[in-house]
Amino acid sequence: MSKESKEAKKVMEKVVSLAKRRGFVFQSSEIYGGLNGCYDYGPLGVELFNNIKNHWWRSMTLREDVEGLDASILMHPRVWEASGHVEHFTDPMVDCKQCRARYRTDELPESGACPNCGGKETFTEARKFNLMFRTFVGPVEDSSSVVYLRPETAQGIYLNFFNVQTAARQKVPFGIAQIGKAFRNEINTKNFLFRTREFEQMEMQFFVKPGEDDSWFEYWKEQRMQWFKDLGMSPDKLRFNEHGPDELAHYAKTAFDIQYEFPFGWGEIEGIHNRTDYDLKQHEKFSGKAMKYFDQEANEKYIPYVVETSAGASRSFMAFLVDAFAEEQLEKETRTVMRFHPHIAPINAAVFPLVNRDGMPEKARTIVNDLQKRYRVFYDDKGAVGRRYRRQDEAGTPFCITIDSQTLDDQSVTIRDRDSMEQIRVTDTRIAEYLSDKLGM
Ligand code: GAP
To answer: Which CATH code is given to the segment(s) 3-77+132-322?
Structure first.
């Protein structure tokens, strides 16, 4: 292993261990040995996750031309025939005859040797493996009751195109946004939250007049890249990657990924696709229901084209987690700090009494009670104040408010900035205003 990949592995190990220790992410069903490809979000994780999803939701729906939707996970099985997932949503798979390890053929080393047991040329013929999870509705488990756990949230949006358009009195161009779980029975899960079997997506389908798709595609591509940057993701670790003709999904005319440079290399966090009229046309064909939209202004009927922005919420979460992680060499110690953008940090502010006497805890509690009406605040009076700062650095808390002896004289507190570690003094009546300014809420 090269020096760089050893270093990268170490960083990933540190992030995963911090994620567990501080309650961002736990392995699912850990006490039973874990369930591969499934994770649970702990107290800090669920706050960070919700903040990311809320920011995405607001960025999409606080505009006049995008409506929200929350469609069900189980849908009519014909949906997945129409969408092409029953036929095309497969990975080629082989088994090692010697040790029975299973691989996607595109992940096999060029040497042709099994990465697990080293056996040479021991693989079975490649066969197609459909990634959709199947289950049954009702008590009878036969082919007539098969349904699938959705592998993408997008189809629920297409099925509701006319419902939303009519109910919200929208006109093309407009979009529908949705956040929700998706499931894929990945052959090999890997790299922590990067490729899991259960994950969340934040998808928006923007319906446009054919011919206007290319300019809307450009617009959304830029908007989506900017969203990651606005939430503090390092710009030099973000890039576009265009899909070549042989990489395009069965529904796409043009596709760009937004990639993030993880410690293990560049990986897609979001796909922006021009899906043309493929999906609506397929649903028209399979359901027998007309999917043509009447454009009053143009006085014509057409099936709209779709520009899709499809972000992995869980993968974005992981990118934000990795991007925030930093170790800084201070004079006497190494400081681990999660530099989350203040808008997504799980805890908004921590409040400490410097010592547990002279009325400081009482004053600190009063401040906590006041701030808690608006913010997620953490009270901590355990141990030396320096250690309390470190604990909040690891949680990514942008501001720590300390009540000291001067507070009791002049009602001022110190506010310490997580990144610069600098402290300023502010009158207690101005704390909420200070936080509001910095946190944008
Ligand atoms: N509706 C289009 C669609 O689903 P995709 O490129 O297959 O497109 C979109 O997936 C995003 O969903 C990806 O960019 C990724 O962030 C996330 N994603 C896909 N498979 C995933 C998996 N197994 N685990 C975690 N995230 C996944």
So the answer is: 3.30.930.10
